[in-house]
Design a protein that fits this description.
Strand order of the largest sheet: 2-3-5-6-7-8-9-10
Bound molecules: iron/sulfur cluster
Number of helices: 10
Strand content: 15-25%
CATH class: Alpha Beta
Order of helices and strands: HEEEHEHEHEHEHHEHEHHE
Number of strands: 10
Number of domains: 1
Largest sheet: 8 strands, mixed
Shape: globular
């Protein structure tokens, strides 16, 4: 039987309501048993992660649409048009992430059946990474900035050691790196990065200062405070730093005022004054909105939020004598 759009919408709302109650009860339970939600990983237990192997074709550096306007990309100023991604999956499991949609589009044929699992719970590692590192002619990208990484965090626990090996080779050959991470595991490599200060920038992303919201939308990521600490440590080592304030979520029951949230983020940013500041709202990519709605237990409506927050972003930065770039909605990645 084909259900009408009305029925589908009715069922969707009922499901969201049910999930909202479950989520609320769960948070109450956590509150009664723990001092804070900080260390609690919701139902996205890391023991659920499945690992696989795939064969990666060198070179490890590939052209990136994300950064290359000439190739139909969005020109996000995160590299000179190159990215270094070497895993399939990202165990940080951010609920707003659109990378899962890319892997699911390729499907099983590129890596294997694990990509059918939910986002954050599969990770394919390259079986031939040592060879691929050796076979990449790093000098070809001497003086060129490469983003590391755009489809996974290079410092999730399973990748940190390999990332170090890659960085040693790349930096020695003169490659410039835009290291984009949410992981404090990156800090242990700052002494290495600081030997190549002119070639490196370290950037983190912060979506919210509301820790409860953060636990829901980025369940396995270090807290916002821990991420500011990454920037602070990078600054202490004399590294160039940057922050991406994203994705800014609209008004939600758990965090009603996005404006207050942004003010708090910018206040924290002002203490560090990173060289690069970017901002972006939540955008629809793949099934990320549905995923978020199910996790949050409410509908997400964007309206003209992008425009409102763009203005707010610039005004807030101006208060502290800072400037940044707002990434408007783009549909071609
Ligand atoms: S860290 Fe980045 S790539 Fe990984 S899940 Fe989060 S948004 Fe996606």
């Amino acid at each position: 039987m084909i259900e009408s759009t009305y029925d589908q919408e009715k069922y969707r709302k009922a499901a969201l309501k049910a999930w909202s109650t479950i989520r609320k009860n769960k948070i109450e339970k956590i509150r009664s048993e723990n001092e804070s939600l900080e260390d609690y990983i919701f139902d996205i237990d890391s023991r659920k992660i499945s690992y696989g192997k795939f064969h990666i074709n060198p070179p490890l550096i590939k052209a990136s649409k994300l950064t290359w306007v000439e190739k139909g990309g969005v020109g996000k100023e995160l590299s000179d048009g190159w990215a270094l991604n070497y895993a399939i999956g990202c165990t940080h499991a951010c609920r707003f992430c659109y990378v899962d949609a890319i892997h699911k589009r390729y499907g099983e044929r590129r890596a294997g059946p694990l990509v059918n699992k939910s986002w954050g719970n599969y990770l394919y590692l390259p079986e031939n990474i040592e060879e691929a590192i050796e076979q990449t002619k790093w000098e070809k990208w001497k003086g060129i900035e490469v983003m590391m990484s755009s489809t996974h965090d290079a410092y999730i626990p399973a990748l940190a050691a390999t990332t170090r090996k890659i960085l040693e080779k790349a930096l020695e050959a003169g490659v410039r790196i835009c290291l984009q991470t949410r992981s404090p595991l990156s800090i242990k490599d700052f002494p290495l990065l600081s030997d190549y200060k002119d070639q490196v920038r370290v950037q983190v992303s912060i979506a919210t200062m509301n820790h409860e919201l953060s636990r829901i939308i980025e369940p396995r990521v270090a807290t916002p405070d821990a991420r500011f600490n990454i920037l602070s440590k990078a600054k202490d080592m004399g590294l160039t730093t940057g922050i991406i304030i994203a994705p800014i979520m609209p008004s939600l029951k758990i965090r009603p005022s996005p404006s207050d949230d942004l003010e708090e983020i910018v206040k924290r940013v002002s203490l560090l004054k990173p060289e690069n500041i970017y901002g972006e709202c939540l955008h629809t990519r793949g099934s990320n909105i549905t995923e978020l709605e199910s996790m949050l237990g409410e509908s997400i409506s964007m309206g003209n939020f992008d425009l409102v927050m763009e203005k707010k972003f610039h005004n807030e930065l101006k208060k502290y004598g800072m400037k940044g770039r707002w990434w408007k909605e783009h549909r071609n990645h």
